[in-house]
Amino acid sequence: MVRYQLPKLPYSYDDLEPHIDKQTMMIHHQRHHQSYVDGLNKVLAEISGSSHPQYITSILSDLTPIPENLQKKIKFFGGGFENHRLLWEMMNPDGGGIPGGRLADSIDVYFNSFEEFKEIFSMEALSIEGSGWSWLVFNQTFNKIEIITTKNQDSPWILNKIPLLGLDLWEHAYYLKHQNLRADYISSWWNVVNWDYVSNRFSELSG
Ligand SMILES: [Fe+2]
User: Fold this and answer.
1) 1 assigned to some structural domain
2) Is 2 a domain residue?
3) For the chain, how many structural domains are there in total?
4) Is residue 5 included in any domain, yes or no?
5) Sheet holding 144-151: strands in order across?
6) For the segment 44-79, what is each residue's pLDDT rounded down to a tens digit?
7) Residue 93: how many CA atoms within 13 Å on its side-chain side?
8) Ligand 1 geometric centre to CA of 110 (Å)
9) pTM of whole model > 0.90?
10) 15 within domain boundaries
11) 179 pLDDT more than 80
């Protein structure tokens, strides 16, 4: 049986300071992400081995083989595991700035400019009621990029969309530093976006 583990951060807890603070990073990674890892392993243990040999993104893309009473848990813990795994990779102490390469061209095509993209993404992130995520995704069906939001820990994979860039809008991601000021958190986060990682994901997908 596949057992998932808490992935290591690609940098230190305080490396994203002052934009994302050390204490938030520690609690977010060691407690919140760990709880999704543990929850996912627990729910997978309840399912017979034959129904989950694939990686979690494949499972999320088609929940039909999962017993109906466990689909909600898989969505929550599996989404929580994978969303956070990506979140750490999508940030970097040397991040920020603007994307390059083909992603930059595609953003210009679908959003007119990087500034307009950033504004729409931030507005969507602000508009989420309760907990959720804001995403830039690759829509394979139409071979285009889109901005979407998801509730709770829903992953873009359950919509058959591939996450390129994701922002965690749960209060646990920002409350210690920013309290209820979500807009401040969003503007801080742009300073650490790992555009190299995001651009490379896009280049591989849009081949
Ligand atoms: Fe989170």
Assistant:
1) no
2) no
3) 1
4) no
5) 144-151, 132-139, 161-168
6) 988 865 456 688 999 999 999 899 999 999 999 999
7) 13
8) 28
9) yes
10) no
11) yes
